[in-house]
Amino acid sequence: MTEENTTPPAEKTEEKTIVTPEKTSGGPKSDEKPRRERRPRKGGRDRKPREAKEFEEAILQIDRVTRVVKGGRRLRFRLTVVIGDKKGRVGFGIGKSSEVMMAIQKAVSRAKQNLITVPIVKGTIPHEANEAFKASRVLLFPAPEGKGIIAGGAVRKILELAGVKDVLSKSHGSRNKLNIACATFNALRGLETVKNPGTKITKEDVEVEGEVTAEKDVEKAVAEKSPEKKTEATKKPAAKKAPAKKPAVKKPDADTK
Length: 257
Hints:
Blueprint: E1 56-69, E2 72-84, E3 89-97, H1 100-113, E4 116-117, E5 129-133, E6 136-142, E7 149-150, H2 154-162, E8 167-173, H3 177-189, H4 215-225
Parallel strand pairs: 7-8
Antiparallel strand pairs: 1-2, 2-3, 3-4, 5-6, 6-8
């Protein structure tokens, strides 16, 4: 008889089901640790916020200037820079250096020394301007609201940084940017402030030195500023003619008797 291989029956194992809690979108779980805050790199520095610049800068022209000397040629850069705050102040400067960054710094520092104030009336210039520099001539005309800056090249950048919104311009002669920029600054420098353009002068606008005690003094001052209408008080009285002199009668001499 053959011995039968009898194996013991396998024991039944109970399957245990593990229930995991559902993930919620709330804060971190009590078991989890909060994330660490971002630390700056080792050896790094915290960056400070940049301060707003007082003036905006614009480069008009970059020129490479070479000078021939005994040892060879020396290369330098000449930069023309315009700065402005778009509130009426604008400046213009030139800087020269062997490096571009150094030339920009020199030009900006010189532009701050040559600042001018441009009078702006309702977004445009108060009156026409016509100025020349060497072979370049620039004409500026006031424009109505919404017209925009009708200009190009150096004139446009200067007017934008000055804060002018509406203007008409025309340039004649040489197209050299440096000459046009100088002519534009001469034109802006010659503008005069006008309180109420197109209106007549009134008594309130007249500035009289000292205290005015009588109305006649005010009328006289108004008449001097408005040559179109002169009051009778300011007219000079006509000069009276001197009476004609009678011819002198000669007395008879005593010898003739």
